[in-house]
Amino acid sequence: MRHTTKFKMYYTVFVFIALAAFEHIIIGLFPPLFQYIASDLNIDVADLGFVSGVNILVTAISALVWGYLSGKYKRKMLIIIGTILWVLSVYLTSLSQNFVQLLIYQIITGIGLGCMAAIGFSVLTDYIPYRKRGLILSLWGMAQGLGGIAGSIIASLTATSTSWRWPFELTALIGVFLIILYLFVTEPNRGGAEPEFKRLKGDKQSYDYVIKAEHLKLILLKASNVYLYIQAFFMNIATGSLIWIPTLYIYKIIQQGYSMETAVIASGYLYAIFQIGGMASVYLGHLGDKAQRKSYKGRAYLSGVFILLTLPLYCLFFLIPMTDLDIPNQGSAWLILISLLKQIVMNPLVALLFVLAFFASAFQSANTPNWLALITDVNLPEHRGTAFSVANLFNSLGRTLGNVGVGIILGVVSVHVTEPYNHIVTLSLLQIFIIPSAICYFKMANKNVTDIKQVKSTLQQRAQQEG
């Protein structure tokens, strides 16, 4: 029986981590396809930036509703409904014939994706043992990053050989398989991973507390939450601009005399290869767990230091040219990949770019698992879905501003600077927002101590009442 329970737990964690990956595969599909969609539907690329921004914003706003519902109702049925929504709308996106249809279908997609973010987080935090929150949540965060990379690669590879519609059709098809997997998911008891309850009642603990409307003010104004909201906003202005990195690669590769088709394929591969450092999130989440066991300030200080280090690394990464490339023009996707891997070893500038990107993405990866663990630590179980959804709104507002900000600043910079240097200047300017993001971590450290102790005290009192 015990082995069966563990299997159900591992299976559910696996499904929801896969869910996080698919959310970002869908997000990652869009930017590499801008040129193809714009040409096919006869619209401006800037219009697609608007559609992408609206999708991100709708995802965040809908997550507020889904997050609140996750604190009141059974989450398994909610996640199935949300997944059906995005699967259907992603497929309809592949059938779009004009800008209006594309916008409407992406809005519906955003509503479905909001469910995945809020409820997936809520379920995971009720399964993850307190001492391993950073470690397990790092897998959830890493799945999001890998999903974004996979989406970019799928788009780059399939669009050049078929059409921009095929990646959306493929993703919708796999989404149907996910719905089947949900049917076998076991929903955890709310608060089931809290040590205060496990000590008293073992596996039979119950937690009947649900969110109420009057709790919203407490969630919104809790000091640690406020800093987490602001931190997410500033951090995602910087990281939101990074989805334009493949566009920078494309211009740098075309500048070396390669065709658009070769540049698109190569940029997808480079974007994936240069994000390998993000795998370090597992270790840095574990490191955050260790720091937090020593002091409730530890996780915040560790995260602040690491993300601050990404600023100079990314600026240098944007600045270094991608010269003396030796890849087959109009060659197959596999030949281009093999050539790029050789370039990392044989071409000093590409090797330097890889090293800078590795450490920049590694240090940046400290943010997600530790941010997720902090928002879990400072909120009661029934409040976590809503707290995460509010924070995710700030997250998405920042990402949208970073995304749209590239277009605005690029327009100004392009008057004075040519390709690809206008992209270099634009992306570097937006990394400045890392500084206030790191400051938020340092400022929230003392607030974490108070808020975590308050949560643990409340849980202890409730556990005693249950006992």
Detailed description of the structure:
The protein is mostly helical and about 475 residues long. Helices cover about 80% and strands about 0% of the residues. It is built from 20 helices and no strands. It has helices at about 1-30, 35-40, 45-70, 75-95, 100-125, 135-160, 165-180, 195-200, 215-220, 225-240, 245-255, 260-275, 280-295, 300-320, 335-345, 350-365, 365-375, 385-415, 420-430, 435-465. The model has no long low-confidence stretch (mean pLDDT about 85).
* Termini separation: 24 Å
Number of helices: 20
Structural class: mainly alpha
**Biggest β-sheet strands, sense, barrel:** none
The helix/strand series, from N terminus to C terminus, equals HHHHHHHHHHHHHHHHHHHH
Number of strands: 0
Helix percent band: over 70%
What sort of overall outline do the alpha carbons produce when their principal axes are compared?
globular
Mean pLDDT score: 84
Strand content: under 5%
Q: Rg to the nearest angstrom? A: 22 Å
Oligomer: single chain
**Which regions are unreliable across 5 or more consecutive residues at pLDDT < 50?**
none
